[in-house]
Specification:
38% of the residues lie in helices and 20% in strands. By secondary structure, the protein is α+β, with helices and mostly antiparallel strands. The chain starts with a strand and ends with a helix.
Length: 372
């Protein structure tokens, strides 16, 4: 079998000028280059004529490198003033999570090397990983911990004994985001790896939930929907409460910790006029009718908005799984915690703050449809 090497860069916060695209064309004559994306496949040798970390720092925001011989990389660019070096240092590992400093930015790179990973097409990876960058900017340390854990398991494999390393304390590993789950897959981390090597109280079955005070219980219950309250009451009635009490307290505890973020709609997102016009031009190019323009927007949203992502509806968390066409418009198909499906017009979909990757495209759709 010939070698397969897939490289992709994506710009999220900026677009590439024509001059920058021409400059990047000199890095690889095989690459597909747009205002936001650079991708290339090498099958029979060859490589980029530039350092990927430098390319990322200068032109892009995220990067992935996938091969069929067990080598994987994922990297993000962060503004230097948004990175706490002292906190970051706790998680670094020379083979699994490295940091690269540039004048105005910092690049974090996760790496996996191993022959026991199943090869898959490189193009599928980056969409699922896009959210990691924003999560780190929001102060979420779980992606950093996953890099540390990958390095810890590497050291244990090489040394054939438990490495002498203190586990950085981290919470929330029992409820990873979709992006973090994708990062686990890239780093070949299993649920067993998390449970076996993370002394996280959130993973312990014996966690004492009875310490929730009455005020905390009342506040958590007040955030429940009528349907959720009814469902739990029915469960208590059916088994006289003994088998339901612990699951109920556990569910409430997680709900109390996970407070609803401030929500916005796509109409609240400030979209610069040049970017809006560029988005509309890309979506409606060669369209001869409103129906074809709608199809064009749907196709661009499918490419640019990583799914699923999490938000809230009527005080309860939901996961947005699809964006579909319906009756001449676009809708978001969501599922709640009970796996019940809810369909919401995309123009009225509440978005968490900060908005998920690709939210600018949703904003462009809303602005375009309101003005057509």
């Amino acid at each position: 079998m010939s070698e397969y090497e897939y490289t992709e860069f994506r710009a999220l916060d900026r677009t590439l000028s024509k001059a920058a695209q021409e400059l990047l064309g000199e890095v690889s004559s095989r690459a597909m280059i747009t205002a936001r994306r650079f991708s290339v496949v090498y099958n029979f040798g060859g490589s980029l004529r530039a350092d990927p970390m430098e390319m990322l720092a200068e032109h892009f925001d995220v990067y992935v490198f996938i091969t069929n011989y067990g080598h994987r990389k994922f990297a993000v660019r962060l503004p230097s003033d948004r990175v706490d070096d002292a906190q970051l240092t706790r998680f670094l590992h020379e083979y699994a999570l490295t940091v690269h400093h540039f004048p105005e930015s910092v690049v974090l790179c996760w790496t996996w090397n191993g022959e026991d990973v199943e090869w898959s097409d490189g193009e599928r990876w980056l969409d699922g990983l896009l959210g990691v960058r924003q999560e780190i900017l929001n102060g979420d340390l779980r992606p950093l911990f996953l890099g540390w854990l990958c390095g810890y398991l590497y050291d244990r494999h090489i040394e054939e004994e438990e490495p002498d390393q203190a586990t950085p304390p981290i919470a929330g590993l029992d409820a990873l985001t979709p992006s973090q789950e994708a990062l686990c897959e890239l780093l070949n981390l299993s649920e067993q790896d998390l449970r076996a090597h993370v002394p996280d109280p959130a993973l312990a079955e014996e966690e004492d939930l009875t310490e929730m005070g009455w005020d905390e219980l009342a506040e958590a219950i007040s955030t429940m929907s009528t349907t959720q309250q009814r469902d739990w009451l029915l469960r208590f009635a059916e088994d006289e409460g003994e088998d339901t009490r612990y699951p109920f307290l556990q569910w409430l505890k997680k709900r109390a910790v996970r407070q609803q973020p401030r929500l916005v709609t796509a109409a609240d997102i400030d979209l610069d006029e040049p970017i809006y016009e560029e988005f509309v031009e890309q979506a409606t190019m060669d369209a001869n009718s409103e129906e074809e323009q709608l199809i064009g927007f749907a196709a661009m949203l499918e490419d640019e908005v990583p799914l699923p992502f999490d938000t809230w509806l009527l005080g309860s968390p939901v996961r947005v799984r699809e964006i579909n066409e319906l009756d001449g418009s676009l809708v978001a198909v969501c599922v709640d915690e009970a796996d019940r499906e809810v369909t919401v017009p995309l123009s009225r979909l509440p978005l968490p703050t900060p908005p998920p990757a690709g939210a600018s495209w949703i904003a462009a759709w809303v602005q375009w449809v309101s003005g057509r």
